[in-house]
Amino acid sequence: MSQPAEAVAAPAPQQSERSRRDFLNAVVRVRELGLIVALALLITITAIAEPRFVEAASLRDLVRNATIIALLAVGQTLVLVTRNLDLSVGSVLGLSAFMAGDLFQNNPDLPIPLVFALGILLGAAAGVINGALVTFGRLPALVATLGTLYVFRGLAFVWTGGSQVNAETLPDSFLSIGTSTILGVPTIALFTVVALVIVGYALRNYRAGRELYAIGSNPQAARLAGIRTDRRVMAAFVASGALAGLAGVLFTARYGTVDATAGTGYELQVIAAAVIGGVAIFGGSGSVWGAALGAVLLTTITSALIVPKVPAFWQQAVVGALLLAAIALDRFIAVRVAERLRQRSTRTTAAAQARNGGER
Amino acid sequence: MSAERAAAAPAPRRLSELARWEALIFLLIVGTMVLGSGLSDEFLTGDNFSFTSADMAEIALMALPLTLIVITAEIDLSVASILGLSSALMGELWVAGWPIEAIIPFCLLVGAVCGAFNAVLITRVGLPSLAVTIGTLTMYRGFALVVLGDAAVADFPESYTRYGFENVPGTIIPYPVALFGVLAIVFAVVLHKTKFGREIYAIGANQEAAFFSGVRVKRIKEILFVVSGIVAALAGVIMTLRLASARADYGTGFELTVVAAVVLGGVSIFGGKGSIVGVILALFLLGGIRSALTLGQISQEWVTIVTGALLIAAVLGPNLVQRAREARAHSRDRGRSARSGSLEHRPREKRGTDE
Hints:
The complex is a heterodimer. Chain A is mainly alpha-helical. Chain A has a domain at 71-292. Chain A has 15 helices and 2 strands. The longest helix of chain A is centred in the last third of the chain and has 46 residues, at 314-359. Chain B is an all-alpha fold. Chain B has helices at 2-8, 11-39, 46-71, 79-95, 100-124, 129-148, 158-165, 175-193, 195-205, 207-212, 217-242, 254-264, 276-295, 301-339, 345-354; strands at residues 152-153, 246-247. A two-stranded antiparallel ribbon of chain B has the order 1-2. Classes of the chains: A mainly alpha, B mainly alpha.
């Protein structure tokens, strides 16, 4: 093969190859796109093996299962972005879930929106405690929310006194939130979608939202730039708590039967969902869309693995491996982006030097 | 020679700081003792010690390597899952007809491999240990379930299981606790009396500085994670013997209890600070509270609440004291600079808000 012939033949395939590489790059770099592709692949493959998997009813179940973890992941993202962590969400969910059940059990005529409001308020109050410990008390978030994880869970046990709320004692109109659909979409999922849109929009477009990223990227720089970091971090914890409170009420509507153990162990699942969704565990990057998609992917895997008769026991192992792959991918991208930035900056400085030289 | 002196110089301050923490925990233990013996006559008995300490043995064991890991400013949340995997393997291999003498080393080996896998992802791939070990926490628990499912294997012979709960002859110390005692001494000596131990502190205080002073940061972290895996597997073996039954879901949620014990023991989650003695005292305190409330027939839920509250209070208290001290120093500074002219005023104030 002679050199010139290859050079002539090159341009056309190069073009298509470049566009393919660009697409791959985009899939890898835009996490949401990558997650959607992974999700689509997963659902397609499962559907080929078992067509019933994509029937409307089972898809709806899929969405319902993902709803609560996705909602918690949205709140968790707000906190993670500021380089903090909220381990107490599972316990807050438990408290709020039992409160909702208890309220209805004792006064079946209570208006449903009021119970939702109370659940959210309870969660927000828990968030205030977490936020105060982290900002005013200067506790590392991991320690503070590990402590409140225990305290809130313990309070839930004391409150329930070993009793449990049963579905029969709850009003049907409340339980129907967990089962009904609006225009084919499960009602329960609409709560998550609304929260997702609001938080997603605020995080992207509002100053307060951008400041959360600034704090997570470099807390000290953010403070010196005049951002009231304590106030913002507090707000993130309150929002995470409020969403966990909302998730608790939805938990009761969905499952009907609630005891003090509701939501035990959710905290690590939620963080896993956010991390799979591309939220950096040390702050500064990630989106709620990614986190919610991460939650959907996690729950879909769990459902999909049932189809090929994989013993249920494999689920956890696969989820763990996926999580590791996700963070490894993040690391890989971060390294490449850093390299490219370095290249670009050397190129621009070289160009600037050349220009300066020319002017002189 | 001079390097040695430099390393020794900050020690007194750190020592006194630690001593204060340990004194605080010690006082709390005394308080628990008084409370416990007030609640029940059985509290201060040998039997109660044997029972409670055996119950804490697995958490106590896993706390030792975790202390060292947290001092290097890393974390290992996968320990409880390695415990479960080890127990599941023990059950499965026993059913398959392996002798116990072969099963135990094999379990420890698997623990070492699990730890090494964590270590490689953290040191060689460069991933944050918090995220990695949340991932392997799920994965190793998954492996445990794959190995044994939701079955339980309970036909271990009494000649082995007795080492899980019986006391060392002539003492009130159960075998697992005796083992913990031996390991605690080993860990304390390594951490506080060897070069390796000082390097662990150096990594936690300033990883980069440690690296440039010739500390093999990655190698040390790898050793610690492998040791953590081995000890977690050992805890799985002990739990299986103690309860005379192997299950894949043993220790679910223990990871956070172990972290709580380590933090309560005065180990800074940001690394560089902490001692084995502090963690041992914290374990005593947690065991004492658990036992006192159980014997006092106060519902078990309060144990959870007290543990959480203690964890927060233990870290919050010193922080608030320091905050108050800083505020005082700050206002004194301000007064002084006002007297000596306003030029110095501004930067000082800025430094104050910087903290």
